[in-house]
Amino acid sequence: MTQTAAPALRMFIDGRLVAAEGTPLDVLDPATEELAGQVPDATDAQLESAIEAAGRAFTTWSAAPLEERRAVLRSLAAVIREHTDELALLLTAEQGKPLEAAHGELRSALHWCEGIAEMEFPAEEIRDTGTHRIRIRHVPLGVVAGLVPWNVPLALAIWKIAPALLTGNTIVVKPSPFTPLTTLRIGELLAEADAVPAGVLNIVSGGDHIGPKLSEHPGIRKIAFTGSTATGKKVMASAARNLARVTLELGGNDAAIVLPDIDVDTVAEKLFWACFMNTGQVCVAAKRVYVHDDVYDAFARRFAEVAAGVKVGDGRDEGVQLGPLQNRVQYEKVVALIEATAASGARFLVKGDIPDGPGYFVHPTVVDDPADDSDIVRLEPFGPVVPLLRFHDIDEVVERANASEYGLGGSVWSGNPEAAERIATRIETGVVWINEGPRLAPDLPFGGHKTSGLGVENGTAGLLEYTDTQVLWSRTD
Known about the structure:
Blueprint: E1 11-13, E2 16-18, E3 25-28, E4 35-39, H1 44-63, H2 66-82, H3 84-95, H4 99-117, E5 124-128, E6 132-140, E7 143-147, H5 153-166, E8 170-174, H6 181-193, E9 201-203, H7 210-215, E10 222-226, H8 229-240, E11 245-249, E12 254-258, H9 264-276, E13 286-292, H10 296-309, H11 328-343, E14 347-350, E15 365-368, H12 375-378, E16 385-391, H13 394-402, E17 406-407, E18 409-413, H14 417-424, E19 431-434, E20 449-450, E21 453-454, H15 459-464, E22 467-475
Parallel strand pairs: 7-8, 7-10, 8-9, 10-11, 12-13, 12-18, 13-16, 15-16, 18-19
Antiparallel strand pairs: 1-2, 3-4, 5-6, 6-22, 11-21, 14-15, 17-20
Helix pairs in contact: 2-4, 3-4, 3-6, 4-5, 9-10
C-alpha cells in the first residue's frame, strides 16, 4: 500500500487560490479512517466572492466565441490527463474505490470533457418567407451552481462544468465535504496552468451548509444537483424562491430482469458487477434482480460464487476489486439494513463479513428471494447488498419492477434481444439496458422518471437545459 502525506488544499475562486479562514475541514480515508486531507470550510464572504466573480465573468464569457469555450474545456482535459496518476491516488484516498477504478473515473471525466467540447447547439432557422425570417437561439442563463455527490465526485463534477461552460454560463462547483480533494486539486492545477479565465469556473468547499446557501442565492440562475431524492426536493424548494432552473439527478432502485433463455454463468458474472460496482454506490447500479424461476437456483448459485470470491480491501492494495463504503453515515445505514433484513427472517445466499474496522468495509451480501414489501427490496441500499427475487411470468415481473417510486434505470437480460426490447419498453425508467450493465455517453441524454429526477444531463437535451430559448422574429421586406 502506498499512502502519501495528507494535503491541505485551497479553493479556486476568481482565478486565484483561496485558503481556509479558521478551522479547516478534515477529509477521512474510508479505508483507514485516517486523515486524507484538509480543505477550507468556505465562509459566507468567500462564497459570496465566488458567486460575484462568476457573475462578473459571465458578461465576457457568454459573448466569447464557441471555439474559445471549446478550447478551455480541452485545456481542462489536458490538465487532468497530465496529472492522472496523482489525481487517481488522491481519488482513491478520499473515495475508497480501487486505484484501477479511480483511473477509470478519470478516463470518464476526460471522455465527457472532450466529448461535450465537440457538441453543437446551433440556432434553428424556422422560416424565411421573403417577408419574415424567424430563428430560435439558445442563450446562456448566467451563473450555475453545481452540487456534486461523493460516489463519483470528479466525473459528476465534469458532467456539470463542461455543459455549463460550453453553453456560455459560468459556474460555482461545490463538491461533497466527504470527497472534495480531487476536485480542489484540479482547481490548483488549473490556477498553476492559467487554463481558465478568472471567474468562469470557481470551486468552493465546505460543510452541508454551503449547498442551501448556493441553491437559494438570488445570483444563481440554475442548480445542477446529483444526490438523494430527499435532498433534491429541498434543492428544488430553495430554487423556487428565485425561479432558478434545476436539473436533478436523484435516487434509483433499478430492477434487472433475467429471462430463462440466458447463459447463466456469463450473465450472473456480468450482472454481479452491474450490482456491486463501486461497492454498490452508483445511482444506476442494479439493486433488485428478478430471475425467472426456471433458472433461479442455478443463477443464484453462480451469483453467490462470484460474490464470495471478490477481494475487498484498501483500494491501493494489489488485486482489490471493491473498496469500503465512502463514509460512516452510509456504512451505518447499510449495516442497519443488513441487520434488519436478517432479523426479518430473510435468507442469505451470501452474508458478507462486516469487519470491526478500521475502515467502512462491508463484503458483498446477497439476499435470497425476500418479500416484495421488505426494506431490502423497497429502499435504495446504496451499498454492497442486493436481493435476488423469483418471478414466473412477464406481466408479473414488469408490474413488480415498476412498483417503485423511483424510475432511473433498469435492465433486461435475454438470449433474444428482440424479446428483451419488448419488455424494456414497458419499464418506467429513463434508461433501460439490454444484456449489459450501466453504460452512459456524453452525447446521450440521461435522466430519471418519477422521483428519480427532473430534467436530463448529457446529450443535446442536457446542453439545452443550460440555456434559455430566444426567438428572433425579423421583418425583411
